[in-house]
Amino acid sequence: MSGPSVAKCVRAEVDFSYFGGAESLAEGRQKRAPRRTVVVSPTEKDDGHSYPAPPQDPTDFLWLMTEEPHRTRRMAIMKAHPEVTKLMGHEPLTKFVVLAVVMLQVSIAIYLRNAHPLSFSFLLLAYAVGGTANHNLFLAIHEITHNLAFKGVNANKALAVFANLPIGIPYSAAFKKYHIEHHKHLGEDGVDTDLPTRLELLCLNNVLGKTFFATFQIFFYALRPGFVRVQTPTKWHLINLVIQIVFDYILIRTFGVRPFLYLLFSSFFAGSLHPCAGHFIAEHYLWDGLEQETYSYYGILNIFAYNVGYHNEHHDFPSVPWTRLPALRALAPEFYDVLPSHPSWPMVIINFIRDSEVGMFARGKRLGKGDSTSAGAAREKEVVGG
Q1: Residue 311, pLDDT score
Q2: Model-level pTM?
Q3: Is residue 315 part of a domain?
């Protein structure tokens, strides 16, 4: 064999990257964090360990041309398990849980009337007990919004106003309309106010920005809807406002401002770096490169959160109350146990902050129906590649 031929064979057989320094060993390899979601029943399509998809483009939201998935799965489950309708209906236990938590929070607030708001005991109670209790009330209002506490609509609205009292700020009436739109128009830009805005994407799409967002989530969820989609006030908005102001006034007038501060601190912690607050990010942010828009969590924190971790189940069947969501999953495991889910809410917050694969961009968006604005037309042209 001639000299040039030998040299050609050597080049084909020897990986010269081994002689190029340590950095050359990583050439062509993609470094990814460990997978964050798990699959209860692995399939050939998804074994629950390897990545099923490449990372998402961090410069924009994931624009989808498909319809939201929950209606399709709901119809499939009803066809396969028609007995699922027996799980639907109101849950009488809800009103008693709400009453107990409201009494607990008011009692602790009054108990702390002589404690300094920045003392260790005050802050510890506000975070550990108050944050958990007010988060429970957030999710009680969520449950009641679906008319699952009473048969009558007005009775549910009244209970939501009552559950709102320890939160300190009136929001239950406004939340109802925004949340129903979130279900009916999941992911629709300009309609679903659960979605981050373009400004949030531009300003918060880094570790520092995500830390800020996770710390002050409560303000984003409280203020964003008003900028995206303003509501027309109803009598229940007025009732919610007046009753909350009267309650706050009586509390401050009778026991001073510190009990009221305890309730406000509790609400802040409930929507900040709190274990239960992981569900805000866990529910609809995109993970592991998947285009799955909703994720469930089946861990112990559901005890404090009206089983809101069963979030695929909830979106599939909003008329099934919190006490029966585990039964819904058990009824149709072939639909739910194959879906990636989160093993931990606290780790969702940590991973959201530190992972480059997930951030403000990690949300699925679709064009609002009937969007004929120039911005909507431009977005449609971009999405379809026109």
Answers
A1: 98
A2: 0.86
A3: yes
